[in-house]
Amino acid sequence: MGAFDLDRVLKDDPSFLTETEHQHDTTVTSVGIELDGEVDDARLNAWLGNLLRTKGADIFRSKGILAIAGSSRQYVFQGVHMLLMGEEGAQWRAGEPHRNRLVFIGRNLDRDELERGFADCLATAGAAA
User: Considering only CA atoms, which of 76, 74, 88, 79 is closest in space to residue 106?
Assistant: First the structure.
């Protein structure tokens, strides 16, 4: 979404890319999810709302490109903790698989729980129920 501009950062901090000694927090991990299909908008909003309300303090960053059922455009979102913003992106190209890609970065991330929760947002997830 254009929020990071390396040239601007280097102008403000010329040593930004200089390697320095630092210690990484090993409790911070990431979970990436890729899943084909289209997402039900209402299920997605409910899931993300609950996820960010209950685990938002531990979710430092989230971002993704999603295929919303009934939309011909990609949906692009990014979030910081409990704040989330999104907008329509590029058109899906003819024949392009509607593949959802999202990533969460934070602490205490449960990969299985995140994958199950997102899979339940697929438009086809409730078809058999």
Answer: 79
Q: Which residue has the tokens 């989330």?
A: 84
Tell me the C-alpha to C-alpha distance, in Å, between residue 6 and each of 1, 17, 36, 40.
14, 10, 32, 36
- Would you say 39 and 67 are in contact if contact means Cβ atoms under 8 Å apart? yes
- DSSP letters spanning 24-82: --TTEEEEEEEEES-B-HHHHHHHHHHHHHHHTTTEEEEEEEEEBTT-SEEEEEEEETT
The DSSP letter of residue 18 is S
Rounded distance between C-alpha atoms, residue 35 and residue 105, angstroms: 18
Contact 121, 40 (CB under 8 A): yes
Write the pLDDT tens digit of every residue in 82-125: 999 999 999 999 999 999 999 999 999 999 999 999 999 999 87
Q: How confident is the model at residue 25 (pLDDT cuts 50, 70, 90)?
A: confident
**Sequence-separated (6 or more) residues with CB below 8 Å from residue 78:** 1, 3, 61, 62, 63, 64, 84, 85, 86
Q: What is the value of pTM for the model shown?
A: 0.77
